[in-house]
Write a structure and sequence with these properties.
28% of the residues lie in helices and 25% in strands. The protein has 141 residues and is of the alpha+beta class.
Amino acid sequence: MTIILKEHQFSIEEYLFLESQMEDMDETSPKQAQKSLNHHITAVAAFDGEKIVGIGRLIGDAAFYWCLVDIWVLPEYQGKGIGRKIVQWLLQYIKENSLKNTRVSVFLMAAFGKEGFYEKLGFRTRPHEYEGAGMKFELDM
């Protein structure tokens, strides 16, 4: 197995397939998924040959705030370092595309039970001594 990472514009079919393979994910409508894919900063995909086996995307303002989203690896490929490589690729993208001599914030929302994975990559769990808990608000449209 040779995994190759590359910047990638996902098809709606690729995106929805990968989403369907993730635990505890609500099904996204194709229209909403396509709008989201049209507005991210960049995206990376992991390939095993021609098969897409993982993805990661960046959203944000590309100046102060960057947010990692959709860090997904097919279940049968998990535990092989692919997720780590995806996160490292996205962090390198941020380093190469941020304004020099500035400080930026990189955020993510870890799936329940996956916090330790991100902590090994340098992320801090909130709350801690300087920051409160992350919060979320959802609207039904």
